[in-house]
Specification:
mainly alpha
Length: about 90
């Protein structure tokens, strides 16, 4: 991990991309608006949880554990946003 600032920017970037896709889904399928808005709220909650986890590593004074923590954190972030995109795809396929 380069630094915490870059990680937070990546979290925000992924949220922006997801919200943009949600807005496009609402535009093309207005009948699914309530489900998509609920998913957007869930994504914002995920972003807040990721920010909290990024700011509070488990053992901040042990460099080896911090590297492992942020490596696992990045994997978790990617899989979490991936699952959000999958949920959006399922809503759009209905």
């Amino acid at each position: 991990m380069a630094n915490l600032r870059v990680l937070k920017k990546e979290i925000d970037y992924r949220l922006e991309e997801f919200v943009f896709d949600c807005e496009m889904a609402i535009y093309f399928q207005p009948s699914n608006e309530e489900a998509v808005v609920a998913l957007m709220e869930k994504a914002v909650d995920l972003r807040n949880a990721l920010y909290y986890k990024a700011n509070h590593p488990t053992e901040p004074h042990n460099a080896s554990l911090v590297r492992k923590y942020y490596s696992a954190f990045r994997r978790d972030m990617v899989s979490s946003y991936g699952s959000m995109f999958e949920e959006l795809s399922q809503i759009n396929n209905k």
